[in-house]
Amino acid sequence: MQRFPIAALAIVAVLASGGTAGAQGAADQPDGRRTAPRAEDYTWADGRHVVIPPGQTGSSEAQCPPGQVPTGGGYNAFDGGVIDLMVRTNSPTTDGWHAVARNTSSTNTIEFWAVAICAPGTQTQAPRPAPFAR
Prior knowledge:
By secondary structure, the protein is mainly beta. Helix content is 7%, strand content 40%. Strands 1, 2, 3, 5 and 8 form a 5-stranded antiparallel sheet that branches. It has a 3-stranded antiparallel sheet with strand order 4-7-6, with no helix packed on it. The protein is extended. The model is unreliable at 1-28 (pLDDT under 50).
């Protein structure tokens, strides 16, 4: 796991997508808004690198450090040339990011791993919506 400042544009994109994640230490503002975590509070977490042989499937999960929650994520892949990859799962978990992919190449091996962008906070669950009545 590495800690590094993320460019302000990336943070704006995460926060604009609803990624405040109930930030710890966020101060309430007089107008009712909350202060978002600072760039240096975010952590980039890499999952286990898996080698996927031709025609096979592999999975990886990136986990946020304790006290942090995922605000975004995805996956990376490398094979030194053209990547023939079919991603089957690319989604958040309660503490990170999970990705599953199939190597559709008949000759190239692919290195694949999940990534998560984490911020200080605790996981919250939205209330279930009321049943739809006609």
